[in-house]
Amino acid sequence: MSNRTLNKYLRLFQKSALACFVIFAAILANRPAVADNPFIILQSTTSTQNSGLYDYLLPHFTAKSGIDVRVVAVGTGQALRNAEKCDGDVLVVHSKADEVKFVENGFGTKRSNLMYNDFVVLGPANDPANIASATTVDEALQRISASQSAFASRGDNSGTHKAEKRLWKAANIAIDSAVNSWYLETGLGMGATLNFAVQANAYTLSDRATWLAFANRAGHKILFQGQPPLFNQYGVVPVSKSHCPNVKHELAQEFTDWLVSPDGQNMIASYKRNGAQLFFPNAD
């Protein structure tokens, strides 16, 4: 598949994804409101949603506390911006430096470690860049760049995209989709980017949890993993009532306290897909 064809395919894929989003938003807007329980808004990275973790955790928390948790799953960068605008009560994201800055700027009360997993580099089974034999992350990315093999980037300022940019920089590779025609920015979430990577026969970076929960794998598989730079830490941050007077701080703090409690941490540890643990609790 030529680079021109790949870019044409990417544009069509983005248009289809946007159309699906508009339809879904319209459905949500016309859904009857349910106000049986008090609720909070959780601004969250997409990986925790795509992995199915919230479907597992939140009913348990609601049954225990009587508090509903409504999830807005977007990239980490967007989640932080939404919370900064007071469009949420608590954050679960995965870009520690940005989370710390969020608290230092007075937008959040306290950042706590919640859990971790790792990133993996996925690609077609025939591995055209031969990254499976690389010994470092730098070498794996350098081989993709040198061979100009298609690489699908989320390109959305998410935690995964931020990590990916750090990895390219550490490998001394300047990436620009306007110059590097093999580097394809989807502007989409992790699940949609995985779908695109599989259909475009491209490499991509994913958190392990989303990949393990992903059904449309076709001929793709993990080709590089297990190196320290691929560590992926998640944090939880309640939004500050001083910054956002209308934030449901007490309810958000109750949710945060539960997540980092032995009960919440044990629930996170017990969540598995196909027998594999997806997240590893490490609350402060």
Name the features.
alpha/beta, 284 residues, D-Maltodextrin-Binding Protein, domain 2, two-stranded antiparallel sheet
Description:
The chain has 284 residues and is an alpha/beta fold. It folds into two domains: 20-116 and 232-281, Periplasmic binding protein-like II (D-Maltodextrin-Binding Protein, domain 2), CATH 3.40.190.10; 118-230, D-Maltodextrin-Binding Protein, domain 2 (3-Layer(aba) Sandwich). 44% of the residues lie in helices and 21% in strands. The chain has helices at 3-29, 46-50, 53-65, 76-84, 96-104, 137-147, 159-170, 190-200, 208-213, 249-260, 262-270; strands at residues 39-44, 68-73, 90-93, 112-124, 151-153, 183-185, 203-207, 220-224, 231-238, 272-273, 276-277, 280-281. The longest helix is centred in the N-terminal third of the chain and has 27 residues, at 3-29. The model is unreliable at 24-29 (pLDDT under 50).
Write a brief structural summary.
By secondary structure, the chain is α/β, with parallel strands linked by helices. The protein has helices spanning 3-29, 46-50, 53-65, 76-84, 96-104, 137-147, 159-170, 190-200, 208-213, 249-260, 262-270; strands at 39-44, 68-73, 90-93, 112-124, 151-153, 183-185, 203-207, 220-224, 231-238, 272-273, 276-277, 280-281. It folds into 2 domains: 20-116 and 232-281, D-Maltodextrin-Binding Protein, domain 2 (3-Layer(aba) Sandwich); 118-230, 3-Layer(aba) Sandwich (D-Maltodextrin-Binding Protein, domain 2).
